[in-house]
Amino acid sequence: MGRLGIVGCQLLSVAGLLIAWEGAVRLALVDPLFIPAPSAVAAALGTMASDGLPRLADTLLKTVIGYCVAAVLGVSAGLIIGSRRLVHRVAMPYVVALYSVPKILVLPWIALVFGLGLATAVLSAALFALFPIALLVAAGARDVDPTLIAVAASMGATRAQVARKVLLPAILPSVLGSLRIGIIFALLGVLLAEMFAGTRGMGFYMQRLAMAFKAPELVGATAIVSVLSVAVVLSLEHLNRRLARWR
Question: Are 37 and 217 in contact, with CB atoms under 8 Å apart?
């Protein structure tokens, strides 16, 4: 089956799911108060666009800022921890332990120190994304064949040249994989911060919709955020394939 056939099957499966969902609501098999019909969600999307899109833009801004902070710190920390044996043996247990702590437990402390608003959401995004990025990059750096580095050094390559010509191409899949995962964790961190310690943004908006039992609008907002997340991940996957040629 070709690519067009696969895409066609995927679209048909989604259409079948939506039709079955609509039928279940219209036949009163599910309660529309909690599970609205797709037609009701589509109608709600038109009415909530003017209110939801500015909030989505606000959430995206916080996510991008926190994600950039996490990417810079996470990739740098991962390279250092993964490429130096002593640092790896000393620091890795702490990194794993901090990664294992549920980050939502830290949110009240961040809100207590920084209050409600931009700083709390950005720090939450950076915190959620930092450790997955650092761990994946460190694992990729540890898997680099030391023979490649030794050969490059024996041929007179400097540390900067070894990092640019050997280490970076070798760990590129790990870096890109960590960045794909990191953006989802950053968005999750922002949404949680907005829900529990926010006064604006998509997370705060979705919490208000849930408290008001506006199920069609809530499903619509969830769909918008989900589509955005999928689009970002697919874009990073496309970038991964393009950079694979450079390797």
Answer: no
